[in-house]
Amino acid sequence: MNIEQFENYFFIGIAGTGMSAIAQYLQGIGKKVSGSDRLFNQQHKMQIQEQFEKQGIRCFFQDGSGISTATQVVIVSTAIEESNVEYRKAAEMGIPVMKRSELLAALSSSRRTIAVGGTSGKSTTTAMIFHILQECGYSPSLITGAGLTALQQEGLPGNTWVGKSDWLVIEADESDGSIINYFPEISVVLNVDRDHKETGELMLLFSTFREHTHGRFIVNHDHDLIKTLSQEVAGDFGTIQGAGYVGKDFAQDGFQIFFTINEVPFKIPVIGKFNMENALAATAVSGAIGISIEDSAKALESYSGIYRRMQLVGNKNGVYVIDDFAHNPAEVAAAIRACRQIGKRVIAWFQPHGFGPLRFMHQELAISVSEVLRETDCFIMSDVYYAGGTVDKDIGSEVVITEITRHNKNALLVGDRTNLPAVLKDMVQQGDIILLMGARDPSLSEFAMTVLENLYVNDNEVQNLSL
Question: What is the architecture, at CATH level 2, of domain 3-99?
Answer without folding.
Answer: 3-Layer(aba) Sandwich (3.40)
